[in-house]
Specification:
10 helices, 412 residues, Heat Shock Protein 90, three-stranded antiparallel sheet, five-stranded mixed sheet
Length: 412
């Protein structure tokens, strides 16, 4: 992996985001601790205020000197309830009044159902101010203390989690966009290099043929004139097709090419395309075989654009064939669609490249094959045309064994 500036920025940004997330999580834990401390402080205030109120009631104090009866427990409960509401502690609680031997003085009474086992997290208050005997305590228990604190933090917690998720999603999308833009930039650079090379070759040939025509103009050799004129026309046609391919793709993306859809037989498109490659295949001793299995071949479509799309597929299959091109075209019906498959026995496409072949400017690395020319726009153009006809295109390929492209289009 090459550590260029973009990669370094992504790594630094990721580390910075990780640190921020750790700080946020630590802040949530600290906030929970502060909430718990505040809760304990309020609970202690409740106990202190309750103790003061009991101390102000001489009758209750004298009775507590002997034992904690049910009436006294009700008074203590009402005081606790009042001060709990006063300090906004809306939570279930239980309490105990313990004598020096730490045995609940109210055991055996109906009040017992309000009591819970002694918990280490309980709040306690000495009753030395109330009773003369030392060691008496008022203990306040909160069985749902953790749930209460979590409920208090719920809004803060949910907000923090949502913000963290939003930041993570935005960071992921930004990083993905950056990498995508980088890939597009690299593909565009490759495209410009390819385009320069593709234009340079025919221009050089045209220039040489023109010079030879001027040189031999006085010799009046008709055969040479025809030969050089043929070179100029062929190379000029190549330039025209290359320029048209680039402009067509750009126009398609902008929606500037209106499709003239008419009712047509796709078999006629296949035959037209096969005929246009007859001379090329004869020169390379290749062949195209057609196996028409489709019963319904009528569709609504733009004949020109669909013909260009199929020609692109056939041209690709021929260009990437190892020796003698052997192409097989099959048609068959699938539900209410016609399917057209184009199979070759060429170099094939590795699995990691198969999802990218329809991307604009993308060209599959061909290893030892160096004579394949193009801009990486052909398959992107084909996919765009097929999708504009509400169809789909897919491929199956195996390295060294060939490739099959399958187009499906809705029947008329």
């Amino acid at each position: 992996m090459k550590f260029n500036r973009n990669n370094i920025l992504i790594i630094i940004s990721s580390l910075a985001l990780l640190v921020v997330l750790l700080i946020q999580v630590n802040w949530l834990f600290k906030t929970a601790q502060i909430k718990e401390e505040l809760f304990n402080e309020k609970a202690n205030m409740v106990l202190a205020k309750t103790t003061q109120a009991i101390y102000a009631d001489e009758v209750t104090c004298k009775k507590l000197e002997i034992s904690a009866e049910e009436n006294e427990l009700h008074k203590i409960d009402s005081l606790l309830h009042y001060y709990m509401q006063f300090y906004n502690l809306h939570i279930n609680y239980s309490f105990e009044v313990l004598h020096p031997e730490a045995i609940p003085v109210n055991a055996g009474t109906d009040w017992e159902q309000l009591l819970s086992p002694v918990q280490p997290a309980c709040n306690r208050k000495s009753l030395e101010e109330v009773v003369s005997k030392k060691g008496w305590e008022l203990k306040l228990h909160f069985p749902q203390k953790k749930q209460f604190i979590m409920a208090e933090m719920s809004t803060l917690f949910v907000t923090s989690v949502l913000l963290i998720l939003i930041v993570l999603i935005l960071f992921w999308k930004t990083t993905r966009s950056l990498l995508k833009e980088k890939a597009i930039s690299e593909h565009t650079s490759d495209f410009l290099n390819n385009m320069t090379h593709e234009f340079k070759t025919p221009l050089t040939n045209i220039s040489l043929a023109g010079k030879m025509l001027i040189k031999d103009v006085n010799n009046n050799q008709e055969s040479k004139t025809k030969y050089y004129s043929g070179i100029i026309l062929d190379e000029n046609e190549k330039l025209r097709l290359q320029v048209e391919q680039v402009l067509s793709m750009t126009a398609l993306e902008r929606g500037e090419i209106p499709l003239n859809k008419i009712k047509l037989d796709f078999n006629s498109i296949i035959h037209d395309c096969m005929k246009s490659f007859e001379l090329q295949l004869a020169h390379t001793h290749g062949k195209i075989e057609l196996r028409p299995k489709a019963q319904n071949t009528i569709i609504y479509g733009d004949k020109t654009q669909l013909t260009n799309a199929l020609r692109n597929l056939l041209d690709n299959s021929i260009k990437y064939s190892l020796k003698k091109p052997e192409l097989l075209i099959q048609t068959f019906n699938l539900d209410n669609n016609i399917a057209i498959s184009v199979n070759d026995k060429g170099v094939g496409i590795k699995k990691e490249h198969q999802k990218k072949v329809f991307d604009k400017f993308y060209r599959v690395p061909t290893g030892d094959v160096h004579n394949v020319k193009g801009f990486g726009l052909g398959l992107a153009y084909v996919k765009k045309i097929i999708e504009l006809h509400q169809g789909t295109i897919g491929l199956e390929s195996e390295k060294g064994k060939g490739t099959t492209f399958t187009i499906t289009l809705p029947n008329a």
